Amino acid sequence: MYSAIAVYTLAFFAFCAEWVFGSRSRVAQQSAALAAPAAERVPASASVPVAAARPVAPAAAIAAAYGSSSGASGDGGTGVALAERPVVVVRDTGHDGDGADDAGNVTGGSDRSDRFGRIAVAFTVLAFLLHVGTLLARGFAVKRAPWGNMYEFSTSVAVMVVAAFLILMTRRPVRWLGLFVLLPVITTLGVAVTVLYTDTQQLVPALHSYWLWIHVSTAIVSFGALHIGALASILYLMKDSYQKRMAGPAPASRPWDTVMERIPSPSSLDKTAYRVNALIFPLWTFAVVAGAIWAENAWGRYWGWDPKETWSFITWVAYAAYLHARATGGWKGRNAAWLSLLAFACFLFNYYGVNIFINGLHSYSGV
After folding, report:
1. Considering only CA atoms, which of 91, 24, 16 is closest in space to residue 258?
2. Could you give the CA distance from residue 232 to residue 180 in angstroms, rounded to a whole number?
3. For residue 27, which phi and psi values (nearest 5 degrees)?
């Protein structure tokens, strides 16, 4: 497990390097914006005018190198044509995301940045294999499913977060999401090995059932995949706020603007969150139903409003409300994103809060 955490950390730093070396300085961006449109307007036979004896401003010097020799260019007859700054649309008004591009512009065309991105993916796959090997070893050691306590459940959820990211990356160009995925994975594993660690032990007799494989495994897959939907919702809110600020009369610069510039559009992030949550919601529904069936086999009743059962139902209602709101025109965009995060917060409390702080049949207090 420590080896997996170490390799995940290397992958995280490689993703950071991809973002760092893929960024372009503001001076380079402005120069490209000024020079590219002007160069397209230069005819093959155009001559470069001779600069006047008076000092020329840097912007005028750039324009003089590409401008027309004609005095009718609106420069007062000096023969210097000022390059026009291209119009950049920064506000994405759509939220359906039907034609949105999922690819973020992280590398900016840099070969070195792309190389770091591919190294990061390789490290992620290696750490994932080590992580899976750890779970298999734990399962062989206890001779049961390796998710009988909070330590085992947390490590299983973390491996499902990475699995969901790798599967999504085979379907969509979402390598840019790796930086944000590994942060909660490393945090979860760090908490698991330091705070939640429990030595191998057998389960109580009531939990010796094949429903352990069915109910808990579906809950693990649901929890892991819903991390991706929550991350997409958080990034949507950040990207949407960034675009609103940049579209204002006096946009203020922020240190993280270079990150916001290179993640996909809000419509693409909204689409990603909706698709992940909608895909996993039936599986989470099955997990709740399977838990009720297992409760009847173990305790003689399907539903007893145990704290874990109650908060599982609250989480289910929250995600059902999100999907209903997302399918309603007036609740797309920011409102739906906040509701998605509220539902995921219910999931987090259902796991950490209920298991540790509230006593019940599902309580793992003291673990």
Report:
1. 24
2. 9
3. -65, -45
Contacts of 207 by beta carbon, 8 Å cutoff, 6+ apart:
148, 298
Is residue 179 within 8 Å of residue 12, measured between CB atoms? Answer: yes
Greater confidence (30 vs 202) lies with: 202
DSSP, res 351: I
Question: Would you state the structure tokens that stand for residue 16, as one six-digit string?
Answer: 């950071």
- Say which amino acid occupies 98: D
AA identity, residue 57? A
At residue 242, what is the residue type? Y
Task: For residue 26, give both structure tokens.
Answer: 């503001």
- Alpha helices by DSSP H, listed for 209-327, are 211, 217-246, 257-260, 266-299, 307-326
At 283, list the tokens: 């599986």
Q: Cβ(70)–Cβ(46) under 8 Å?
A: no
Q: Which of 219, 291, 241, 257 is nearest to 29 (CA)?
A: 257
Closest CA to 80 of 54, 49, 53, 57: 49
For residue range 34-61, list pLDDT tens digits in order. 444 444 444 444 444 433 334 444 444 4
Q: Tell me the per-residue pLDDT of 191-215, one tens digit each, with 9 for 90 and over.
A: 999 988 888 777 777 677 788 888 8
Two structure tokens written together for 132: 């899976």
Q: Output the pTM of the full model.
A: 0.75
**Residues whose CB falls within 8 Å of the CB of residue 291, separated by 6 or more in sequence, listed in order:** 215, 219, 309, 312
